């Protein structure tokens, strides 16, 4: 399965992370090229590049078709999960992305100073207004996911995860059972061991593509968002959708 229905949009299971994106003309052009190359899931956040990431996406894709899902996040730092702060960040994201409705909005971190339920209650109020269509949570445990679902339906969970960093195996399995998208950030971190290089050579693919293909095989709800500013690297990442890893490659099950 190479696509997944995420937040109401059918997207290829490899998306694009944009934590280094700026408003430089070349970066704005890159976003358009990424969509032309087949990307339909673009992930950003209020804090990325001091807000430039959202602004660049807004400039590049203003008026884009509904088949491109833009996901953003707010409430990263301690104290920013307060409803008043979150509301300010959501309003800024709406302006920066040049949209009336954000397709997928994550609570970026559970605020140690604010109950999770209060933070998500603020986000839910924007869902009820129609300014946010779907909600996600980031860097959470299974228990926090279930608390979040008690406030608002959760479409996606975004945790750090890769072939080399598997602390969230339990969360992946929970998301699969509940049919919640699991969106691993930093999906290419770590070397993954010598078997990655062996598999890449056998398949005639890049090691990055093999790492992504492993994630895609790990669970049908996994949708990695590797970050890049290179259209060549982006095409290599998308090629992972067509890789068929064999059990003989020696990669983790």
Textual characterization of the structure:
The model has no long low-confidence stretch (mean pLDDT 96). This protein has nine helices and nine strands. Helix content is 39%, strand content 15%. The chain has a seven-stranded parallel β-sheet, with helices on one face. Strands 1-2 form a two-stranded antiparallel sheet. With 253 residues, it is of the alpha/beta class. The chain has helices spanning 25-36, 52-61, 83-96, 116-129, 142-149, 169-178, 194-203, 207-218, 231-239; strands at 3-6, 9-12, 16-17, 41-43, 69-74, 102-107, 132-138, 154-158, 181-182. β8, α6 and β9 form a beta-alpha-beta unit. It starts with a strand and ends in a 14-residue tail after the last helix. It is globular.
Question: Proportion of β residues?
Answer: 15-25%
Count the helices. How many?
Answer: 9
Spans where pLDDT lies below 50 across 5 or more residues: none
Helix-strand topology string: EEEHEHEHEHEHEHEHHH
Whole-Å distance between the termini? 18 Å
**Strand order of the main beta sheet, please?**
3-4-5-6-7-8-9
The largest β sheet comes out as: 7 strands, parallel
Helix content: 25-40%
What is the global morphology? globular
The radius of gyration computed from the alpha-carbon positions, rounded to a whole number of angstroms, is 18 Å
Mean pLDDT across the residues is 96
The count of strands amounts to 9
Q: Which structural class do you get from the secondary structure elements?
A: alpha/beta
